[in-house]
Amino acid sequence: MERAQTVERALLLLTAFSEDEPEMTVAELTRRLKLSRTIVVRLLDTLAAAGFLERSARDGRYRIGLAAFKLGSLYAATNPLHTYVSNELARLASETGYTAYVGVLDQAEVVIISHHEGRLPVRFVWTAGDRLPAATTALGKAMLAHLETQQLDAILGTDQIRGLTERSLATRADLDRQLAEIRERGWAVAQDESAVGITAVGAAVLNGNGAPLCGLSLSFLDYPHDPARFSDLGSLVHQAAQRATERVTYYERYGHRAVTTSSKRRSRFIAT
C-alpha cells in the first residue's frame, strides 16, 4: 500500500507541471501537492535521478526531463490512433490551407493533442497541452454529441456551462439543441466561442462501440463571412473523422496486424 501511495504521489507531482507552469520550486510543489517538504524533496530526487525531472543549476527550479519526453514520443510513435489522425490532419491542412487540430475530452474540457498548421499567412494556433471548455470548441462539441445524457450531466451539469467569450453557449439547454443538430449532420461548428474572430468546424473519431476517442477540427478566420464554407469544410472534417474511425475500428478488431500487414493488404484495408 505504501509503495502504491508513493507511485501515486510521484504521478501527481509530474502532472503538476504544465505550459502555464513549466518550472516550479520545492516550495511551490509542496503547496500544490499539500505534502510535507521532506516527502516532496524525496520524490523530486528520485524522479530527477531517473531523468523524469531536471533541476536548473541557475535557480533550483524543476522542470520535466528527457525521460518523460521519451515516453511521450514512444506513445506518439506506437499509438495507431496517433498515426491515423496525424495523416488526416496533414491532409485537411493541405487541402484547405487552414490549421487542423486533434483533441481529446477530459471531463468538461478538451485538451489539444496536436495540430498541423495551414499555409495561409493569417492564422490562430492553439498548441499541444492547451485546455479549453469543451462546449466552446467544434471538436469538443462533436465529441460531446456522442455521449449519453447521464454522461453529459455528470461532466457539465444541467444548468450553466462555462464559456470564454460573449458568443459562447451559456446553458445546457442551448448546448443540447446544438448537440441534436450535430448528431443529425455529423459535424459541429463553433463561431467566436473560444476566441473572438475564430470559427472552427469539427467531427469526432469513434471507437467500435461508438464512443468518442478524439475530435478533429479546422480553424479559420471567417472573413468575409460565408455560411456555405461551413458546410463544405464540415463535410471534409466529417469525412476525415470517418476514415480515422474506420482505421481505428479495424485495428481494434485485428490488433497489431492492422499496422504490420503487407503493403498490399494495408492499401486494401486502411489506406486513404
Model description:
By secondary structure, this protein is an alpha+beta fold. It has two domains: 2-69, Arc Repressor Mutant, subunit A (Orthogonal Bundle); 79-269, GAF domain (Beta-Lactamase). Helices cover 49% and strands 18% of the residues. The chain is built from eleven helices and nine strands. It has a six-stranded antiparallel β-sheet with strand order 6-5-4-9-8-7, with helices on both faces. Strands 1-3-2 form a three-stranded antiparallel β-sheet. The longest helix is centred in the C-terminal third of the chain and has 28 residues, at 227-254.
What shape does the CA trace take? Answer: globular
Strand content: 15-25%
Distance between the termini: 48 Å
Radius of gyration: 21 Å
Q: How many helices in DSSP terms?
A: 11
Order of helices and strands: HEHHEEHHEEEHHHEEEHHH
Low-pLDDT regions? 258-272
Strand order of the largest sheet: 6-5-4-9-8-7
User: How many individual β-strands?
Assistant: 9
Q: Superfamily at the CATH H level of the largest domain?
A: GAF domain
Strand count, sense and barrel status of the largest sheet are: 6 strands, antiparallel
> Can you tell me the number of structural domains?
2
CATH topology of the largest domain: Beta-Lactamase
Mean pLDDT: 87
Please identify the structural class as seen in this structure: alpha+beta
State the share of residues found in helices, binned by percent: 40-55%
CATH architecture of the largest domain: 2-Layer Sandwich
CATH level 1 class label of the largest domain: Alpha Beta
